[in-house]
Design brief:
Elements (H helix, E strand, L loop, with lengths): L4 E3 L12 E3 L11 H10 L3 H4 L3 H10 L15 H14 L4 H4 L12 H14 L8 H8 L5 H18 L8 H20 L8 H14 L9 H18 L5
Antiparallel strand pairs: 1-2
Helix pairs in contact: 1-3, 4-8, 8-9, 9-10, 9-11
Length: about 250
């Protein structure tokens, strides 16, 4: 049997000729070196107070014993903080054992693929809760023409990661419809969350549930390629708008 294939996460730091890789082989290297990861990891706790800024990046470098000039390692400046957050929080989804491999009590049924998709999407949104008051800054950085390809690539990789972890095995055109739909849902909900003042982001959760219902992503797919083409066209515009692009 052929090995199961999955789209490879794109990054500005890694350029590969093959768009897919097999899980029978080691994953490709990430977009950050060890030194970069050390500085960025130390800078993340400064984001709530200082935002996605050069100041937070500089403070992170100082915290781990580097001089301020070490921030020159990041030609993309503060966007490197955004990219690191997107990348690490995407990888962290695989650690949600309570969703992926829960310990079931008597009579309790495990989540299906759709239930896991919704649960993992919510977990990823909640990973923004400590920086959500700064997320408009992140969106502005992602909207810059030089950064937008990386931001959209990370969004695509996030959608693929969620479906893959949830156990999706589709190999037909629904593979694309599901991922396009989830990307649009996530981007819209993330933007809504930046203005949500309800307790525990209750309104965001309801917004997310309505978006899933709108596109009927859980348990079904769109009826034709024409429907899919029309939806992805609108979704693409909405994603760009959610990243701050004026269209």
């Amino acid at each position: 049997l052929l090995p199961r294939l999955r789209p490879l996460s794109k990054s500005t730091a890694v350029s590969l000729l093959r768009p897919y890789h097999s899980y029978d082989h080691p994953p490709p290297p990430g977009p950050f070196t060890l030194t970069e990861s050390t500085i960025l990891s130390a800078a993340i706790p400064h984001i709530p107070s200082h935002g996605f800024t050069h100041t937070a990046l500089s403070l992170g470098a100082t915290d781990v014993g580097y001089i301020d000039a070490s921030t020159n390692l990041f030609p993309n400046g503060a966007f490197s903080l955004v990219h690191y957050h997107l990348y690490t929080q995407r990888l962290a989804l695989a650690k949600n054992e309570h969703i992926l491999s829960p310990v079931l009590k008597g009579g309790e049924k495990p989540l299906g693929v759709g239930g896991k998709v919704k649960a993992l999407t919510w977990e990823r949104l909640m990973a923004n809760r400590e920086v959500i008051h700064r997320w408009q800054e992140a969106l502005a950085l992602m909207a810059q023409p030089s950064h937008l390809p990386t931001a959209l690539s990370e969004l695509s990789s996030l959608s693929d990661e969620i479906w893959f972890l949830s156990g999706d095995t589709s190999v037909d055109t629904s593979w694309y419809t599901k991922r396009a739909s989830l990307s649009a849902i996530y981007a819209a909900t993330e933007l809504f969350m930046t203005t949500d003042k309800s307790p525990n982001f209750h309104d965001t959760r309801e917004f997310l549930d309505r978006r899933f219902m709108d596109v009927q992503i859980v348990g079904g797919t769109m009826g034709s390629m024409a429907q899919w083409a029309g939806f992805t066209g609108r979704a693409g515009l909405n994603i760009l708008r959610s990243k701050g692009v004026r269209i």
